[in-house]
Structures are given as C-alpha cells and as structure tokens.
Amino acid sequence: MTTTDLETPQRALAVGAHPDDIEFGCGATLAKWAAAGCEIHHLVCTDGSRGSWSPDEDPTSLVATREAEQRRAARALGGSAEVTFLRWPDGELESGLRQRWQVCAAIRRTRPDVVLGHDPWKRYRLHPDHRNAGFLVTDGIVAARDPLFFPEQAWPPHRPTTLLLFEADEPDHLEEVSATVDAKIAALLEHRSQLHTTMQVSPAGSARDAEIASFIDRVRTRLGSSGAPAGLAAAEAFKRVDNL
Ligand SMILES: [Zn+2]
Q1: Ligand 1 midpoint to CA 191 (Å)
Q2: What pLDDT, on a 0 to 100 scale, did the predictor assign at position 136?
Q3: Rounded Cα–Cα distance for residues 32 and 183 (Å)
Q4: How far is the CA of 202 from the centre of ligand 1 (A)?
Q5: What share of the chain is helix, strand, coil (3-state, %, to 5)?
Q6: What is the DSSP string of 135-185?
Q7: Which residue has better confidence, 114 or 195?
Q8: Which residues contact 126 (CB under 8 A, 6 or more apart)?
Q9: Domain ranges of the chain
Q10: From the CA of 127, how far away is ligand 1's center (Å)?
Q11: In the predicted model, is pLDDT for residue 55 greater than 90?
C-alpha cells in the first residue's frame, strides 16, 4: 500500500552523499515542508572533489565551489536550511564507525522528526558513496536513539519518527509536490559545476539553453510519473520506515 503526505514535521534532516543528491532525492519535499514552517537541516557526507569530467580540474577549488553551490541550493529550497559538510573524500565514503559517529551526532544535535537519505538497498546501484551514505543513515538512527551508543556525545539520545529513503528500490510513500517543483529545479540549477556531468548540459555553446530546458523537462516528467499512479500531479517517491 502506498501512503501519501506525512504531516509536516517540525524538523527534518536530509543526508546526501554529495552536493546535489539531496535536491535530486527530496528537494521538492523539503521545499514544501520549509514553506509550512519546518526547520530543515542538510548533511552532506563527502567533499564532492571528484564531481568533474575534466582531468585538469583542481580538486581544492572544486570542493569550495560545490560547498557554495550546496548552500545556495539549500537556500533555494527556502526556510532555515542549515548545511553541514562532513568532507569525506568523494568516492571513498565508508560506512564505518567514525562516519556513523558523525551522523549520529547530527541526528542528536538537530533532533529531526523525519530523516531522509539514500536507499542503501537500491539494487544494481554502482556508486559506493550513495550506498554507504544510505547505511550511515540507517546505522546512525540506531545509534542516535539508544543511550549506550556513543555516550560521550554532548547531545541526548534522539529517536526520529519516520525515515524516508529516496531513490527507493521499493517505494511505498509519495509526497505531493506540485507547488514546489520550481523550487526543486531552481535548487538543482544552483549546482552549476554539475550541469555537464550530471545534467547533460554543455559547458558552453548554442545548444546550452535547449539542454537546460530538456533537463528541466526530465525533472518534471519524473515527478509527474511518480505521482501518476496515485493521481497526483507531481510527487517525490520514497520507501517509508516507521517505528524507528
Ligand atoms: Zn551523488
């Protein structure tokens, strides 16, 4: 059975492997909740230093660029939009204890009702950062809720109410987002360094405007097809996990 539209949470924490993953996975949902007064926190696990097809790219300046883009994207979704970067090397994110400690700390510090992250069980996914970022969320929640995990942390335990996994292998929850499709697109387009690698937009040239329009079309089409089975104009789809 597919459920629709959680009650707007007071606080939400979205965890992505790279700058732009959160906007792709749940940007319109975050924008909808932000507009309704939800406090939104973004946690980005890697530094995005490999997000380029140019072998001459300077990784240090790419990291700074991508963090600035991520902050602008978070603002484009509206609301408070606090962004935290864990800065693990892009492509080398592990779901180990040190990383779990950090995600647990983020959950205890921000006290979200809803946590959103990559589905670590998505089949045939190649990129290890997405898989590991997903496991950091599930493992981080288990640690955050129980007082005997990482008792040295400064914040008290916290148990979120709901986990929503984006890019879900078996989606069973939809958030209706027709009012915030444009905010999601605006946030995605803030990731200018990714227009070529991720959004199939040429760095320059006469086709650029048409390619941006075609990217926007693909985002709209995807949201439309996610919503269609439930009769919604546009939706983001998730695997929903309650009883955390
Ligand atoms: Zn990614």
Answers
A1: 12
A2: 98
A3: 9
A4: 20
A5: 40, 20, 40
A6: HHHHHHHHHHHSTTSSTTSSSPP---SEEEEES-SS--EEEE-GGGHHHHH
A7: 114
A8: none
A9: 8-241
A10: 8
A11: no
Return d(Cα 73, Cα 112) in angstroms, integer: 20
What fold, for 8-241? Rossmann fold (3.40.50)
Evaluate if residue 127 carries a pLDDT over 90.
Answer: yes
Q: 152 C-alpha vs ligand 1 centroid, how far in Å?
A: 31
The CB density around residue 111, as the number of other CB atoms within 10 Å, is 17
Find the 180 Cα to ligand 1 centroid distance in Å.
22
Q: How far is the CA of 151 from the centre of ligand 1 (A)?
A: 31
For ligand 1, the distance from its centroid to the CA atom of residue 178, given in whole angstroms, is 24
Q: Report every protein residue that has its C-beta within 5 angstroms of ion ligand 1.
A: 17-18, 21
Q: What is the CA radius of gyration of the chain?
A: 17
In order of 6, 175, 244, the CA distances from 171 in angstroms are: 15, 11, 18
3-state secondary structure of 218: helix
CA of 142 to the centre of ligand 1 (A): 23
Q: Is the pTM of this model over 0.70?
A: yes
**Distance in Å, CA 147 to ligand 1 centroid:** 31
- Ligand 1 centre from 17 Cα, in Å? 5
Max CA distance (Å), the chain: 59
